[in-house]
């Protein structure tokens, strides 16, 4: 395609992948880029640091307690393995002999080469062996595997054994996710492939967007690897999983939108290069605005303090950028290279009669839906809004705070061991609070801790090798992750902080949960308004209006509330109603940003048609011609996020359900009924204060035909 020097940037971009010669240059560019990115993408797992999944900000008291413990007590750097032995009828001599034999065998894996004596339960039915595991991460993984194997060697009949503690939990997570990155990729690709095949009903066309989005995913993985390797970007399994799902889901959405517009233009242009240039030029604004909304929304996560949430932002933004680049350059080039036959058996043929044809005539179902919304817009939007409000009441089935023993979708050894310990020892014994204090006033710290309601037992102070610090174990009377235990730690902190010169810090699992809850609460208060502000600004710039963005933003927030309510009903039925603390913020971000996606696709087309047909006809026409493709995109995105449910963690299943339900609600109710009916009810004022808000009689005209020179 020839362009003049005065051509706008987006027109020049549209000409690159659609030109007669430049399309081959674009393909060669991507082949070289893909060849360079492939080896780097494979290495992404090498730079994963899953420690961030459970990390707190360095300023949190639990984090400061860990740092002090690591400096004062070198063995604190090693995760604790806890072997538990239980016989409900009472331990026998053979059981104790088994424990003694295991203790000797475990010494080779223990930091310091020694395992402390077993701790017996008061009921005489259980024994515990606890020791820090020596070595680096790989050595610990091998050691824990051998410890588990030793537990199964010749146990007396009826003796139950399990390995728990931080080392056992770490190993269970490693086992649970072994090979899951490949499984998730295959599940996502298979889901997308099936839906594309159903959407296009073509034996060939579905392959093009699938291959293109796979290339985009490869590019995104390579860039994230380089940023992690050389720029300190934090990448964990969660962010890598979200990256795959985002690139596939969003990339296919962009492909559906572009291909639908390309199909329209192929009927109006004899030259497929010209058809692609027009299609890309008319759709790139909506696609770019959609990508900007999601990417900038994700970058808002940089304002969070929880490391795992903060790291998700830039990783996801890289994925969105890669999807945008591939779908607006590689995809159109490949489509033009292969020509019309890709659409077989439903090949869009050029016809002079189609030049002035209104494509809405080909969308019978959506023309009827638009007619339904147009006849009684007030009743439609009020009824839809009422249905969403009713659904939102399901939020009452959800609660925030997921106990560790409910975080896996299957039974694992560390959870089994924890339950065995809780059945035979004080509930807090499995995870006592740990007080780190100056050695001088150690006795006063112990005395103060014993006066705190909810503290069942306070151990003797253990002095650090340099004599400056002591650590004191405080066993809580309640289960470590209960609200009562959190309140106890709060009181314990207040008691020991009040001691002059003690410099006391309270850490441990319960303290971690308390600090995590407060950190997430702060992140929610900061990021939610920030995301809404970013989305609002983008909508204002895109639509050049104020009222329409406010209405669209309100509809998306209502959709999120309804999604949480509907998901509450589903998750409660599945047995997973206790949400991981980071889920509400993450799902809010995805549903607001992705939900606005579909509204952007509709609103930009509505604005385009309103300028030509008038407000009422423009909104109805936009709904008619975009309904099918946006619905297909919503189904694809919901199903793609549904692939997260293959992961063996309950938070992943919760994310899959909430985001999947939310996208479907946004696709079928908000974008199809609520938004257009509300816009029709309000009238041209929807576009206030732009010129479109001023009512004027606009005759219905045939769709404009953009004639361009033959592509070069």
From TrEMBL:
Membrane topology category: Multi-pass membrane protein
Q: What is its main location?
A: membrane
**Which Gene3D superfamilies does the UniProt entry name for this protein?**
Multidrug efflux transporter AcrB transmembrane domain (1.20.1640.10)
Q: Which key words are in the record?
A: Cell membrane, Membrane, Transmembrane, Transmembrane helix
Pfam families in the cross-refs: MMPL
Task: Tell me if Transmembrane helix is a UniProt keyword of this record.
Answer: yes
Known PROSITE patterns for this protein?
A: SSD (PS50156)
Positions of transmembrane segments? 24-42, 176-197, 204-228, 240-262, 283-304, 316-343, 379-400, 526-543, 550-571, 583-606, 618-644, 656-680
Annotated SSD domain ranges read: 172-337, 551-681
Q: Report the locations given in the UniProt record.
A: Cell membrane
Give the UniProt family note. Belongs to the resistance-nodulation-cell division (RND) (TC 2.A.6) family. MmpL subfamily.
This one is known as MMPL family transporter
Which species is this UniProt entry from?
Micromonospora coerulea
